[in-house]
Amino acid sequence: MLGQAHTFFSGNPLDRAGDRRNDPEWLATQEDNAEALSLVLWQGRPLVEATADGPRLAWLAYPHARDVAPDRRAFLGLWKEAPVFAVEVEGADDPAFGPLEGLGEFHELRAAASVLPERDLAMAGMARSLFDWRRRHGFCANCGAATADASGGWKRICPICATEHFPRVDPVTIMLPVFSGGPEPLCLLGRQAAWPPGRMSALAGFLEPGESVEEGCAREIAEEAGLAVTRVRYHSSQPWPFPSQLMIGLIAEVSDDQARPDQTELEAVAWLTRAEARAALEGAHPTILAPPPFAIAHTLLSAWVEGFDI
């Protein structure tokens, strides 16, 4: 993990072979490799098998997977020199009750986060993000023509104007506002109306053009909670495949504790002491549910409880 805090959907073990996947001949040899394997997605859900050691991704020999989904495949990288692919099965009918019967079940990816090994989850998230991008970018944004797949699924090329399109990753600042000017340190959680009852989490928002990470953090906290940021400290990041974001986790010191939810993105806010935040993480707070463990908001809250601060 290169020294950073663990976050779910990171820890991908593959060599992405980004310097070689642009070579069609090399990619062709990988498709013909007898050791080539593939994971399978359907409606963004990975195929998971039950084993004696717990759930894990179900791996298919690549020729079998390619036959199931001949038009929706992508090269993910190399695992100990063996090529790894992903295929996406289309259609409304669950293929686990059809061509993939007996090989596993398709799990919703958020639910799978709590049961899959770290490396499996990272690869499944990578594949989901890639297929989602391809689905949304079938036509050239420059001239409107249908684009063609290239580089093993990591590029789309317009045959009319030759514009090249690459997968998008949208940066998001996600931050835990903290206030240290009172009798004891406090952190702020916010609540969106659409969340389950009691759920509260860190504040977050997309970066805007021409904006630094620190500026985006300060703007979002001012917009959502009416607070002024005085200092920002980076903690960790998380690839978030819903559909394809990079969550940039921050701790942000604010000037006062007079938070006001904007009633547009947040319907309520709450200040918590470290003891209260710990209780929420442990499921023991009387009214507040902490963010789920697979979310970086949970990681930030846990880090602050354990003493990570500005």
Automatic annotation (TrEMBL):
EC number, as in UniProt: 3.6.1.22
Major enzyme class: hydrolase
Catalytic activity: a 5'-end NAD(+)-phospho-ribonucleoside in mRNA + H2O = a 5'-end phospho-adenosine-phospho-ribonucleoside in mRNA + beta-nicotinamide D-ribonucleotide + 2 H(+)
CDD domains: NUDIX_NADH_pyrophosphatase_Nudt13
GO MF: hydrolase activity
Pfam family, one: Zn_ribbon_NUD
Domain of life of the native organism: Bacteria
UniProt domain Nudix hydrolase: residue ranges: 167-295
Entry keyword set: Hydrolase, Magnesium, Metal-binding, NAD
Essential cofactor(s): Mg(2+); Zn(2+)
Family: Belongs to the Nudix hydrolase family. NudC subfamily.
Protein name: NAD(+) diphosphatase
Species in which this protein is naturally found: Brevundimonas balnearis
Lineage: Bacteria, Pseudomonadati, Pseudomonadota, Alphaproteobacteria, Caulobacterales
Gene: nudC
